[in-house]
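We now fix the convention by which a protein and its fold are recorded. These numbers are not coordinates but entries in a learned vocabulary of local backbone shapes. A record is reproduced here so that you can trace the correspondence yourselves:
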Amino acid sequence: MKILVLAFSLFCFSAISFAGTTMIYINYGGVQRDFLVHVPPGFDSTSRLPVVLNLHGYNMTGTLEEAYTQMSLCADSNNFLAVYPDGINYAWNVGWSFAGGAYGTGVDDVGFISAVIDYMIGNYHIDQSRVYACGLSNGGFMSHRLACELNHRIAAIATVSGPLSDSVAFYCNQSRPIPVLMMHGTADTVVPYFNPLDCLGAEESVGFWMGKDQCTNANDTTAIPDVNTADSSTVLKIHYGGCASGSEVLFYKIIGGGHSWPGSPLNAGYGAENRDMNANSEIWSFFKQYYLPASVGINEVESSVELKIFPNPVSDEIKIESNLIITRVEIFNVIGEKTSSSQLNATSTSLNTSNWQKGIYFVKVYGSGYTSMQKICKD
């Protein structure tokens, strides 16, 4: 695999720090995982703020992603929580054997991101209808995967220099139209604009989401003012509307742009760095329009609820335990079909999963004053 093997030479950025940023550690799948949480000044958990998950590029970390993109400054100005998770071995699993594992195998990063959202619900009391995902390069690829597999928890996504991998595009079964913003430079030499290896091209990825979101309107193109004539690049903002359920696809074609985060004051070193726009501002302006529809089953787990669904992955039996009464459990497959439903009045239950086919399922638990949906994987 040639693309993305190049490492971002951003180690010097780690000296940059932001007030209000804390490293969090959780155990997921028997492995200690971590992520940064940045809270804006005067944070009050009763406000139920939105969350932007910002996923790093290949051979980077959440710390470097925060330093390079400087999205925490945007979070401070716009009163949202910025979260920077760390991938295993500096990578996200988007279906490549060299980085996380082939599709359906290896590191369960979708489950990890879902667990991060659970943590934010329980500890920061976030607005669950306003959780968004964005990312650079490999993190952009991962954002597409979240749009396909975790769109019952993610309201919208944005990507920078990160189209869809072939396998994510092939297996994508998102249950609802999802708003998508993409940015890509035409002179990107790390993830080429046209015909990247094992990936869709930038415009192919735009077309993919236009199809998934059932967009009907022709593109509406405007030129971003070329306010920085020294950055060797210009930007076309291309909007595709008329999409199902009020979604949209928005594409920033960075003519002459390289493999970089537009507007960052720091240089990644992979071609022209556009400074006619600020990616953080554009992404947040896009995100803030969208809320997760109530019909998709948003978690409503109060901080007093202790809910466990284990083991995950599951083989022959799954156990569900809560400190509050469970009234119903429903199982959905990866395309949203309900496969079973059980009524009960207890704080724990077990389900026989020995006859389940291998794959991804969602367990929706109803209780006294709460609901929760979690993803599990059947080995």
Notes: Residues 177 and 245 are 7 Å apart (CA to CA). Confidence is low (pLDDT under 50) at residues 1-12, 299-303. The domain at 307-378 is CATH 2.60.40.3080 (Immunoglobulin-like).
